[in-house]
Amino acid sequence: MDQILAYDPSRRFTFGTTIENRTMRLWFMSRATLLKTESFDFIKDRERLVRLFLSLAFSSPTEMGWDPTITFSHLENGRRQYQIIVDGETYTTVSILSDSAADSPLGRATRVWKVVDKDGNTRVLKDVWLDFDRQDEQEIRCAILDDVRELDKRNGSIYAEELEKRMLTILSSWRVTVDNTNKVKDDTTAIMLRDQDQPAEARPTTRGKSSLQKSTTGPRRTLLINSRNENDHRLVGNCRRYHYRVVFQECATPLYDERSLGNALSAVEDVVKALYVLHSAGWVHRDISGGNVYSYGTIGLLGDFEYARHHSDEGIHNVRTGTPFFMAAEALAHAYLF
C-alpha cells in the first residue's frame, strides 16, 4: 500500500487485505490516515468475506482510489508520463522535478512536474495534499499582495510591484474535483471516509506516540498508526487534507541546481529584497531554502508560500515548518534553547 501511493500519482488512496491462518482484515490508507478493521474468521463468517469481495469488485475506479484527473500518457526514456487536468485544462508531463515527499504515505505527497500545455508552452505543475485548516498557495499569495498594497498606500511606495516581479507567477490554481457531475472536491474525510471520521478514541492524543492506538467502539473498532518511525514526532494520523494543484508560468532553476555563481548571487539578492518587503508587510515565509529560491535568467524568484503566515495569525498548527539546515534551531528542536 505504501509503494502504491509512493510510485503511482494517479492513486489517491488504496485498500489492502491481510490473512493470518483463518483470520482476515481489511486495510485502508490515504494521505491522512491508515486504518484497519477488526479481524474476522473468513471460514465461519462467509457472508462478510463475500460482501468484502463484492464491494471491491463493484466499486467504481474513483471509489477504489483512482484519480480520474490523472491519466497515463506515454513512456519516455522508460519513465511514465501523464496527462493531468487542472481546472479544465490538460497538461502533459515532461519530467519529474520533485517527488521525494511522496515517499511518506501519511503526508502532503508533494509532486512537482515540468509540463507542457496544449499550446506547447513549458510550465511547472505542483500536486499536493494540504491540511484542511490551511489556505492554498494562491490564497496566501493574494493575501500577501493585498497587505503589501495597503503598505504602499500608507507609505507611497511601490513594494507590491517589486514583490510581484520576484514571486513565481501562478497561472492556474485548483482544488481537485473527482466527480465532474456533482463538482465534488477531493477530501480525505468528506469523500474518502464519507464524513465518517474516526472515533475519538482512535485519534492521536500524545505527541510522539508512534504505536497503535485502539478505539473501543464495537464493530467499527479501528487502529490508527501515527508514524512508522519512532523518532518522528509529528502527529500525522487522523488529520484531514484536501487535494490541490497549482500551475506556475516560470520553469525556473532552484538555487540547488544553479551552476552559474553570478546567477546564484543575483537570485539571492532579489529574494532578500522580496523578503524585506514581505517582512515589512508583517508576513514571514517560514520555509526559505535552496529549493524554494529560484534563478530565472538574471532574476531571482521566491516560491512555495504554503507555510507563509502573517504575524497577527495566532492559530496553532502541530506541523513544524521549514527545511532542515535552513530553519531556526528552536523550530527544529520544538523548544527554546536560549
What's the total number of strands?
20
User: Taking strands numbered 1, 2, ... along the chain, how are they ordered across the largest sheet?
Assistant: 5-6-7-8-9-15-10
Radius of gyration: 22 Å
Helix content: 10-25%
Structural class: alpha+beta
Strand content: 25-35%
* Molecular shape: globular
- The succession of helices and strands, N to C, reads HEEEEHEEEEEHHEEEEEEEHEEEEH
Indicate the mean pLDDT.
Answer: 84
Characterize the largest beta sheet: strand count, sense, and whether it forms a barrel.
7 strands, antiparallel
- Distance linking N and C termini: 43 Å
DSSP summary: helix tally = 6
Oligomer state of the chains in this structure: single chain
* Low-confidence runs of at least 5 consecutive residues: 199-236
Protein name: Protein kinase domain-containing protein
Pfam families: Pkinase_fungal
Organism: Rhodocollybia butyracea
InterPro entries: Kinase-like_dom_sf, Pkinase_fungal, Prot_kinase_dom
Describe, in plain words, how this protein is organized in 3D.
The chain is an alpha+beta fold and 338 residues long. The protein contains six helices and 20 strands. The chain has helices at 2-7, 46-58, 137-155, 159-165, 261-280, 329-333; strands at 14-20, 23-29, 34-36, 40-41, 70-76, 79-86, 89-98, 111-116, 122-131, 170-175, 177-179, 184-185, 212-214, 223-225, 241-248, 253-254, 283-284, 293-296, 299-302, 309-310. The strands form six sheets. Strands 5-6-7-8-9-15-10 form a seven-stranded antiparallel beta sheet, with no helix packed on it. Strands 1, 2, 3 and 4 form a four-stranded antiparallel beta sheet that branches. A hairpin with a 4-residue loop joins strand 11 and strand 12. Helix 3 packs antiparallel against helix 4 and helix 4 runs antiparallel to helix 5 (261-280). The longest helix is centred in the C-terminal third of the chain and has 20 residues, at 261-280. It is globular, with a radius of gyration of 22 Å. The two termini are 43 Å apart. Residues 199-236 have low confidence and may be disordered.
